[in-house]
Design goal:
The chain is an all-alpha fold. It contains five helices and no strands. It has one domain. The model has no long low-confidence stretch (mean pLDDT 89).
């Protein structure tokens, strides 16, 4: 069994730093993602979600990770509410 990570790898640190500062980048966030990482936005969000689900990320920056988890949870709840409304209207 692998030992749990005790520190964030460089990629995870870069992703969290980008989330912390992306609003300061000129242009749309998606463009910043492509420039900074060379990834599609979909790939970026896959990596970001995996990072924020780790305890090591919470220890690294608890305020940022907590905010990102809250945003993700809020978006998921809105999607569930929209689906429930659409199902009820059918």
């Amino acid at each position: 069994m692998d030992a749990p990570a005790t520190s964030l790898d460089e990629r995870a640190q870069r992703v969290l730093e980008f989330e912390r500062t992306w609003w300061g980048h000129s242009g749309a966030k998606e463009l910043g993602i492509r420039r900074e990482f060379g990834w599609t936005p979909a790939r970026y969000y896959q990596v970001l979600n995996a990072v924020i689900d780790t305890e090591v990320a919470v220890r690294y920056d608890p305020v940022l990770v907590g905010r990102l988890l809250d945003v993700r949870d809020d978006r998921a709840e809105r999607r569930r509410t929209r689906r429930a409304s659409a199902d009820g209207a059918a």
